[in-house]
Amino acid sequence: MRTGRISDHGFLADGHSAALVDSAGSVNWWCPPRFDAPSVFGRLLDDTAGHWSIRPLGEFTSTRSYLDDTLVLRTVFTTATGTAAVTDALALEPGARGHEIGRRSPRVLARVVEGLAGEVPMRVDYAPRFEYGRVNAYLSEDDGVIGATAGGCRLELRANVPLTCGAGAASGRFTARAGSTHHFTLGYAPTYRGGAPALPDADQVLADAVTGWRSWADLHQYDGDYRDLVRRSAMVVQGMTYGPSGAVVAAATTSIPEELGGDRNYDYRYVWLRDFSLTLQALWLAACPDEADRQFTWVARAMGRIDDAPVPIMYGVEGERDLTEHDLDHLAGYAGSRPVMVGNDAWRQRQSDVLGEVLDAAWLMRHYLDPMSADVRQLLHALADQAAEQWRRPDAGMWEARGAERHYLSSKVQCWTALDRAVRFGSRIGAPADLARWAAARDEVRAAVLRRGWNDRVGAYTGAFDSDELDASVLIMPLVGFLPASDPRMRATIDVVERRLSRNGLLRRWNDDPAGFLICSFWLAAGLAEAGELDRARRLFAQLAGRVNDLGLYAEQVDEATGEQLGNFPQAFSHIGLIDAAGRITAAAARLGGRSAVPSGFMPGA
């Protein structure tokens, strides 16, 4: 049987990891130690890989929502005999508030069942499976606590309803009556370090999680267009932040396919410099940038000293470099889509666009990086040097092509961005001779892009030098200030890309891309806004906003024919695209209509 669609899941986070819970009350994904750790619930990728469900015994319908300004999920089940609610949260450290949330979370998942009306017979099925479903642990009960230990993983479950242990699973039944509450607390700890798992009171976990998330939300006031969508997206991105380091993972899952039955099934639980930098820019727009220096310091430490070798483009959440890919061949895969991958060999690639993305984010955050630490100064100087020296070389591009390297236009444009921002930084990061060298290289890049990127036959800037193939990544050109969206060739490019790569408001990256790629679709909306076509931008944004699931969550892509979400989930890139497009529409409306609700300082390439 196929576990529910990826968009059927809600997202819980604690600053270390994420759990995904479907609308039927089943936790189908949780990797307690950190985002990229082995799962203890992995039914998302195989029915036998572990889950924990709490649901009505008979037929039911369900509705769900997050408690306001939190990642605390409430699911209401309605049956023929009554109504009950299950509220789920990953625990934050008690008392943690604002930017402190997620740094020392206890790795606890709490679930509280409330009877709302009538009587609802409920069932609990608890089937942990360690090491991505490889290990079926022995379960034992001691004083009301069910323990499961195997290898380096230890779980303890406390419930105030009776559960019976069987072969690798526990189950039970109870009745939720109006006014009743039933509590479940599941804690994780490593077997040989750190003592027993924490098992705090479930009600207290929920209360701390609500207060903690709301304290974070209170620090981040966005007053532009689409406020609710932007605030939800900002919270989702914060939920994908690894609290101890400040690094932001690209997504919470691995191997959710870009095409059902396809083999482009990659592990996204790592930190891409591209995503990380765009995240900083999005949170600056939607929230507050108080942690800019901490996050840039993390990047500098993860990179180490940069020499002539390609800049590593991705890392583990604590800066690990080697992310070698391997196949979990014992798993059937999401909807039968194999391989199921852990690790991602893109860490070996040259992707020159990251140079510009990091320097662009630094320029945007420049006031918050003052005084600039020596580590960050050296990092930005080295990235500018790389852009000056490496821009002529082919690379794998931002879509991480696994074939031959090419001269991707978006990579060249982002090398220009790196050099442009380095020159703007001036003496803060370089000596006069450095600035002159960077400025000369910047001008060379620009001339090459204008000469070799434009294709008269296509009537647009294409995906690579001297190519006939369209690629939606060229839509970044006005967004980084390389060309204004009103430039005749840029305006023609936006029209051609939309006409030939778009369907039902969804934009594919290239002609044979199997589904619409959400961040590219938002780039199109942003480009239309920059070109002054505000009504078209708003119509497209509204179409894209309608593609979220019932909780306001996006995966990476959407099937243009069926509307089904595809790819890893939730996807930071998609939510970042929403935030950026909302900000640009807000700014365009202010320019065209004199409105004042504009994010402070928001200008492309400012």
UniProtKB/TrEMBL annotation:
Give one GO term, molecular function aspect.
trehalase activity
Domain named Trehalase-like N-terminal: residues: 5-143
- Which GO annotations describe the biological process of this protein? trehalose catabolic process
Q: Where is the GH15-like domain?
A: 224-582
Q: Which domain of life is it from?
A: Bacteria
PANTHER family reported in the protein's UniProt record: TREHALASE (PTHR31616:SF10)
Q: What is this protein called?
A: Glucoamylase (Glucan-1,4-alpha-glucosidase), GH15 family
Source species: Micromonospora chaiyaphumensis
